[in-house]
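Re: weekly structure request thread

Next one in the queue (275 aa):
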Amino acid sequence: MSVLEADAPTRRVALTLEFDGGDFRGWQAQPTGERTVQGAVEAAFARLPGTHGRVHAAGRTDAGVHALAMTAHVDTRSALPAERLRLALNAHLPRDVAVLAVEDVAPTFEAQFGATYRRYLYRMRAVRGAPRGLALDRARVLMVHTPLDVDAMQRAAGAFVGTRDFSSLATQETRSRTRTLLMCELREGDGDLELHVAADGFLRGMVRAIAGTLLRVGAGRLAPDAIAEVLAAKDRRRAGRAVAPHALYFVEAGYAPWDAARSDARLARLRGRAG
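Done, posted below.
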C-alpha cells in the first residue's frame, strides 16, 4: 500500500450497479455464506488497497431478482478517482455484476433512507400460439401460456395507485403495510407485457403479487373493478399469488420528487445501454 493510499481520508461514494440475480440469493449478505450481490461487491472492494465499509443498497432484492440500476453507497479510504475505482471494481467482480457508475457524494448520502421512490419492472410474454423466446428468454421473462385480456389488466393496474394499506399483498411482513404507489402501468409492445411499478417503498414480494393479481384479471378469474375490494379486504388470500422472481427487475432509486417522464427517460437510456 502506498503512503497516499494509507493516508487517504474516508469518503462516501455512490455506486450504480447492474446485476443478473439468477445465481444470487438476493442482495443481502447471509451469515450462512450463500452467494449474494452485497457479498460479491464487498469482496471486490476487499481486493483493492485501502479500507472499506459495508455496501448499503437502496433496496434488498430477493433471490433471483435482477437490477438495471441499483444505487448503493459505501465509505472507503480508497484514493482512486471515481472512474478508476469503477474500473478496478469491475476487474474483480464476477460476470453477473457490473458497476455502471461511481460518484463521490456527501457523507450524509444514504442509498436506502434517502430514496424518495423505487421503481421496478416485471416482464411477461403471452406465448400461447406464439412460442417466441421459450428457450432464450426463459430466465428473463415470465412465459404465460393462457390467453390474456390485456385491456382488462391495464384497466385493473391503475386501481393499485395511491396511498393505502397493502396487507392483501403482504407476505411475512412485520413493518407498516401502508405504502404510496406512484405508478402501476401495464405496457404492451413487441408481443411483451411490461408491468411498471413505482412507490415510496415496497412490501416483500409486493410487485410479484401485483403481477399475479393482474394475471388473474387477464385470465378472467377476477374482474378489473374488483381490485379496490381486494385491497380493502386486507386479506392475502384475496389477491393473486406472487409470480416467479426471475422476471423482476429493480429499475432505479430516485432521490428527487417523483417525475414519471424523467424516470421513463432514464429507463430508456438504461435499456439502450443494455441493448
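The first strand starts at residue 11 and ends at 19. The beta strands are 11-19, 56-57, 66-76, 97-105, 117-126, 142-144, 162-165, 178-189, 192-199, 248-254.
Next request, please.
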